[in-house]
Amino acid sequence: FARPGAIALTAVLAADLHLGDWVGIFGQGVIGLLATRLASLSGARVVAVDRVPARLERAARLGARRTVDAGVDSAAAVLHEATGGRGADVCLELSGAYPALHEAIRATTHAGRVVAAGFYQGQADGLGLGEEFHHNRIQLVAAQVSGPAPAPGLAGRWSGDRIAHTFMDLVAEGSVDPLPLVSHVVDARAVADALALLDRGADDVLQVVLRF
């Protein structure tokens, strides 16, 4: 879990969270769930967003104040309602889906920050940079775990090694417990089956581990 944990921690550090901040975390796969836990430890009030109810239930157990089924409700509407109309102070987009990034921008308050930490591919279908992005002067920050400075503002203090070691320290001390996120253990000789599980995208698949 060192690598996915480092990705989650990089996004949380790039968000520059403060005690009492409202933060929307879009995508509750392994990295999103770890980010939900880390943001909660930082004192933020987390609203977890996903389309898989079982993942939203896990997010609630990891500290999310509220959860949003993106297939049913508007995360932007929920976050504005939860904050008296202001919107989230910060949103983290961890799914790598352009429509989710668009909704994260819509959910964020004036002059707020959106951390894009998903891996985006292809044309940006579903992402509009007019409306809220333009009028609310949203700060869009890219967080990348690789490199000497994983995100703007971290240079000189947070290296990739420090981030990975910090995450594993949190695991060692019991503040973060990633082991329940292992949903499948597959013999390494059956790696094709493991890849098929991921391709199928079943709701019960989170972390697949190969046993050697």
Features:
212 residues; alpha/beta; six-stranded parallel β-sheet; two-stranded parallel ribbon; 38% helix; 21% strand
Overview of the structural elements:
By secondary structure, the protein is an alpha/beta fold. The chain folds into two domains: 171 residues, NAD(P)-binding Rossmann-like Domain (Rossmann fold, 3-Layer(aba) Sandwich), CATH 3.40.50.720; 32 residues, no CATH class. Helices cover 38% and strands 21% of the residues. It has eight helices and eight strands, in the order αβαβαβαβαβαβαβαβ. The protein has a six-stranded parallel sheet with strand order 3-2-1-4-5-6, sandwiched between helices. It has a two-stranded parallel sheet with strand order 7-8. Helix 6 links the parallel strand 5 and strand 6. Helix 1 packs across helix 7. The mean pLDDT is 91.
**Arithmetic mean pLDDT:** 91
Q: Which sequence of strands runs across the widest sheet?
A: 3-2-1-4-5-6
Number of helices: 8
Overall form? globular
| CATH top-level class of the largest domain | Alpha Beta
Count every beta strand, where a strand is a DSSP E run of 2 or more residues: 8
In CATH, the topology of the largest domain is named Rossmann fold
Task: Describe the main β-sheet briefly.
Answer: 6 strands, parallel
Integer tally of domains:
2
User: So, the CATH homologous superfamily of the largest domain?
Assistant: NAD(P)-binding Rossmann-like Domain
* Estimated radius of gyration: 17 Å
Corresponding CATH architecture of the largest domain: 3-Layer(aba) Sandwich
Order of helices and strands: HEHEHEHEHEHEHEHE
SS-based structural class?
alpha/beta
- Roughly how many Å apart are the termini? 17 Å
| Low confidence ranges | none
What is the beta-strand fraction?
15-25%
What is the helix fraction of residues, given as a range? 25-40%
